Amino acid sequence: MTATHDAVTAAERCTPEFRRDPHAVYAQLRETAPVCPMRPPHGNETYLITRYEHARAALSDPRLSKDMYGAMDAYRRIFGDSSVALDDNMLNSDAPKHTRLRRLVNSAFTPRRVQALGPRIEDIAGTLLDACPAREPFDLLPAFAFPLPIIVLCDLLGVPPQDRSHMQQLSTTVAQTGFSEETKRAQQKAEEDLHAYFTDLIAAKRDRPADDLLSALTAVRDNDGGLSENELVSTAFLLMFAGHKTTAYLIGNAVHHLLSHPAQLRAVRENPELIRPAVEELVRYDGSVESATFRYATEDVEYGGTRIPKGALVQIALSSANRDPLKFDAPDELDVMRPGNAQDAHLGFGHGSHYCLGAPLARLEAQLALTGLFDRFPRMTLADPAGEPRWLQVPFPAFRGLAELPVVLDPAK
Does the UniProt entry include the keyword Protein transport (predicted)? Predict the structure, then answer.
């Protein structure tokens, strides 16, 4: 694909070549079309922002709205009607509604609650690794990277153990990216099932509250009252959906890149305190969220000399912004000791008022998952170190993750 100021089709962003190495394409776009018009399959006029400076500004620009009700026709063309009931949450709203919802959820989803999960995350990781074969190749994604965050989220929300495999199945179906009628029907059914499930679970928590986040959310109040019934259901869905695949793919990407960069892995293993900046660098280098969720222009706006007309959708390529050489030295190199590897340097968790609410939990899960994995299996290797990794083939880049991650935990000497 040659980056020009002509519109980029979604298909060009989803070829096997692009999925294998989107960073080369983004590098071209940053130089030749940093704010690039697109022709996505849903038919809505869309612009792609790729430079760090523009991306950071756009993420907190009040002229770029997150309120789906202001662009309902475009929303329905992309997601259909069934998602509306599950999307009445802070991710899809602007101030003052966003401010109110975020304040209420923050009051229940506290740093203390997140940090208290540490021992439980370590236990879950250990139990999952107990069930993995040590000497033969297997796929680490379904055995470890995917079940770990779904179990953590179910514990956090208070989903009963017998329902957790069902939750994983529904969450995976909703997260499918595609525009085929078959995909839309499957997503609609899963969304309806999730709405019904969380409605019943919230009613149960209200009658019999427990020490979990969903019980806390049903009870939380401020001067404006509490969360409405639909806001509660939608918030539970958001926490489950947003925290599952993103963390799973982050763990998978991180393991793959550390195994592919043995000097970086050795540095982390020799100095355990590096795990925190290492996770920040891994999020910057190849995080699991390639593009931020949709925004739309409430008026004509201009970035990088390109006019984005009122009503157009805006996609912000976080993966591209995090490899911008105007912000990061040698951005295509993985460096766990990168100077200034602070949490607010990269845009992997967003920026501004919509900064990822679950970022502290995702960081903790990634840190403990990697530590537990490499402490227990220091000789772990990719099953085929010389082979090409197989990345997700999706019709619209939202997640950045591996389709599989074959490894050997303890290869024979």
Answer: no
